[in-house]
Amino acid sequence: MLNNNTSKTIKSDLNKPKIPAHITCRQCGSDKLINRGKMVQSDMFCGVKLSNDWEAGSYYECRHCHLSFRHPIRKQSEYVNLYQETPNNIYSSINLRHDQKLVLDTINRHRTGGTILDVGCFDGALLSGLATTFQKFGIEASKEAQKLCKKAGIEIIADSAEALIDIEKKYDIICAVDVIEHLISPHIFIRDIATKLNPNGLLIISTGNANNKIWRLFGGRYWYCAFPEHISFISSEWIKKITNECPFKIIELIDYQHVNINITKMTAYVKFVGRLIRGYTELITLQMYDDKSNNPKYKLGYPGVAKDHMLIVLQLNINKITN
Ligand SMILES: [Zn+2]
Q1: By the 8 A CB rule, do 41 and 23 touch?
Q2: Which of 79, 263, 267, 274 ranks highest by number of CB atoms within 10 Å?
Q3: Whole-model pTM above 0.70?
Q4: How far away, in angstroms, is 259 Cα from ligand 1 center?
């Protein structure tokens, strides 16, 4: 017969999300994973309606390499097809986004000209904000967005980040704004970029910081994880570890809020609280009905409340290149 303490231990273990034995980290292969819960079900992918069989999956964090990731994910070719279908109206931005402005200021602080490659350059808005002393190149999947870039004088060199390794040219600056979270293997991307930079070249990245405390609290239900196209999540710890393995040194690493310039701070906080109430009501309902099979519908958190993004400037360290 079980005593009270044993019974409580077993009960709390049963409530913890389980990790099926076959799941390992897709970066380092470790099975030392933390399951941070089911991810929010969404049926829209960059403005394209998804078929019903897209599984939102669960959110895992690797204790060894610090990559957080969605599992399961789809084949890379399925993502490429969807990015190519992204409709034109997604790219009708007039003003730069907050993160694009931050990156633009950062580029101008470090360089006054040279060759620059923007991976995932969208409509070319970021590159168009730079002086003519920069020679501008882009990688972009959407055919519609590529047309806008060409009109802006930007040379499109490829349609996917994974194609970077096949490009012979080297650049003074490579930037990747809101790109890392879309990649199946961010570590391979960083490793490849190291071979595409001129000596002392800069890699400028902006993406979410999965180490943010509110994000960690909400796990897979956090708003940034709710986009089905977001499949990999890095953190300041991940960056520090990867720069030990790749020939880069960290020049800047700052946390910032992902601000929507059309929404006031007060509105963001009100929406944050609204989501909290709705999300936890759903969670309680799912637990009441012991429904562990369904993914939640409601996300938690709201852009502009937490410093859940980071801007990273890495410099190629040629002393660390051995071959
Ligand atoms: Zn790992």
Answers
A1: no
A2: 79
A3: yes
A4: 30
**Alpha-helix residue ranges (DSSP H) falling in 111-235:** 125-128, 143-151, 186-194, 213-218
Ligand 1 centroid to residue 68 C-alpha, Å: 8
Residues 299, 296: Cα–Cα separation, whole Å: 8
Q: What is the pLDDT of residue 92?
A: 55
The domain ranges of the chain are 88-262+307-318
DSSP structure string for 254-294: EEE----TTS-HHHHHHHHHHHHHHHHHHHHHHHHTT--SS
Confirm if 25 and 65 have CB atoms less than 8 A apart.
yes
Architecture of domain 88-262+307-318: 3-Layer(aba) Sandwich (3.40)
Q: What is the pLDDT of residue 1?
A: 41
- Determine the pLDDT at residue 15: 52
Task: Compute, in angstroms, the gap from residue 232 CA to the centroid of ligand 1.
Answer: 11
Instruction: Identify the pLDDT of residue 12.
Output: 45
pLDDT of residue 7: 47
Q: What is the 89 CA–ligand 1 centroid distance (Å)?
A: 37
Find the helix or strand (DSSP H, E) in which 177 lies.
strand 171-177
User: Could you state, in chain order, the average pLDDT of each consecutive group of 10 residues for the chain (323 residues)?
Assistant: 46 57 91 93 80 86 96 89 73 74 96 97 93 96 88 93 90 96 95 95 97 95 94 96 93 92 89 91 78 82 94 90 58
User: How far apart are the CA of 23 and the centre of ligand 1, in A?
Assistant: 11
Residue 322: φ, ψ to 5°:
-100, -15
User: How far apart are the C-alpha atoms of 119 and 241, rounded to whole Å?
Assistant: 23
Q: For 254-275, b where at least 16 C-beta lie within 10 A, e where not — what string?
A: eeebbbeeeeeeeebeebbeeb
Pairing assessment for the beta strands 134-139 and 155-158 based on DSSP bridges: parallel
Coil/strand/helix, residue 62: strand
CA of 185 to the centre of ligand 1 (A): 11
